[in-house]
Specification:
217 residues; 6 helices; 47% helix
Amino acid sequence: MRKTYIATAAAAVMLVASFAGLEETGATAFAAEANAESIVSETALTDEVVPVFVEGEVVQEVPAEPESDQEILVDAPQAETLHQLVQSVPSSGKLSEEMRCLAGAIYFEARGEPLEGQLAVAQVVINRSESRQFPSSYCGVVYQRAQFSFVRGGSMPQIKQGSAAWKRAKSIARIAHQGMWESEADDSLYFHANYVRPSWAKRKTARATIKTHIFYR
């Protein structure tokens, strides 16, 4: 009987302690939750993102358009002589790669020739580019193997960019390209210096002789 009472009393003590523990745990959880809400509230108040307004107009930079490699055509000025025309046609400005090849042929093959001779060399390059017997571009014609002696190793020698000869060559190239002046070379596809006698010349028809060059079809 005494053992049963002691057991019952012990169980009662454990039950009371258990309830006390649950209450303490609940109070602790409630306090932690309240503390978390307080922190969130403070964070919301202190870390609020405030919009910033910029005074003045915001301009977005537009990317520059790539420079075109296309040759810009110019209006043919009125001129009574080829010399006047060369003086009127601009020699400045960017040349396309094709026009650079044409001007380079003029510069290296005929810069010591009169303007008519330089125009005739340009006309031969143009005629070849339009003939099925040769490449279909100015650069293709100029760099064709064993055709122009100034081309070495598939490249053009350095040009004196600031020279008067190069400026004239650029103007002549534009004149020839746009057909501003009729050339004495006409439909010629070949030419050589008059101090050489190539074997192929016997099979061609001479079109013009301009200073030291003879032009053939």
